[in-house]
Design brief:
This protein is of the alpha+beta class. The protein has 6 helices and 6 strands. It has a 3-stranded antiparallel beta sheet, with no helix packed on it. Strands 3-4-5 form a 3-stranded antiparallel beta sheet. A hairpin with a 3-residue loop joins β3 and β4. α1 packs across α3.
């Protein structure tokens, strides 16, 4: 569930920057797979959740052991009460019943104290873990935007099953953003500084070729070639 939540938020915030809502294009299992694309987020936040889960497990085990001990003592006291009643030792019965009530009250009080301790210990750890996840997701978002918009290092050429290809010319290079089970998303640069986001159904794609390039170098070269000659 945590992996799916991370995947949903990372894909949602990324495509939101390009004017798209991931929920419209994605299936439920896409979010789980998207979460796996950023393993460093889980590597960094895992210790916080592991400590919290380990502490919870330890305390629950200790309480379970104590409850087993108290249950055995209560059974023993109940047996002694029955024996006292049978042997007409009526004076011992109230004392044994009081001891039984005291043990129950003691365990109930200790359980309440342990719950408060767990809350005071675990809640800050979980908050730190969740905060670290969101910080890392924001850093990942900034890196993805840089990779896609500001300083892309790869361009994509899409060959469709119809035989056509995208982009239609080198003046509008495509940069891969992300993908779901059914769609691939591309950011299209243009020499006139207009941009658009393209969602291509995977079922219509024959192949995608990625090649290295720099947007500024291409734009400057094409702008130079388009200038009229002074001769």
């Amino acid at each position: 569930m945590l992996c799916s939540a991370v995947g949903y938020w990372s894909e949602y915030t990324l495509l939101k920057e390009f004017g798209l809502n991931i929920v419209v294009f994605a299936e439920a299992n896409d979010f789980f797979m998207a979460g796996l694309k950023s393993p460093k987020i889980f590597i960094f936040s895992f210790p916080f959740f592991a400590i919290a889960l380990g502490f919870i497990s330890f305390k629950i085990n200790r309480l379970a052991q104590e409850q087993q001990y108290i249950t055995r003592e209560e059974l023993e006291i109940s047996r002694r009460i029955e024996m006292a009643k049978l042997e007409k030792h009526n004076i011992e019965v109230p004392n044994l019943e009081a001891k039984q009530r005291e043990m129950k009250a003691h365990f109930k009080h200790k359980l309440s104290v342990e719950r408060r301790r767990l809350s005071l210990f675990i809640i800050p750890i979980i908050l730190v873990g969740v905060t670290s996840i969101f910080i890392l997701l924001q850093m990942e978002l900034n890196n993805n935007l840089t990779r896609t918009i500001t300083n892309p290092d790869k361009r994509a050429t899409i060959l469709l099953r119809t035989g056509a290809s995208l982009p239609e010319n080198n003046k509008s290079p495509l940069v891969f953003i992300t993908a779901t089970e059914k769609f691939m998303f591309f950011y299209q640069h243009d020499t006139v500084e207009s941009v658009s986001t393209i969602a291509v159904p995977i079922s219509s794609i024959a192949s995608v070729v990625f090649s290295n390039f720099k947007i500024l170098e291409i734009v400057e070269k094409e702008a130079t070639e388009d200038k009229p000659s002074n001769k």
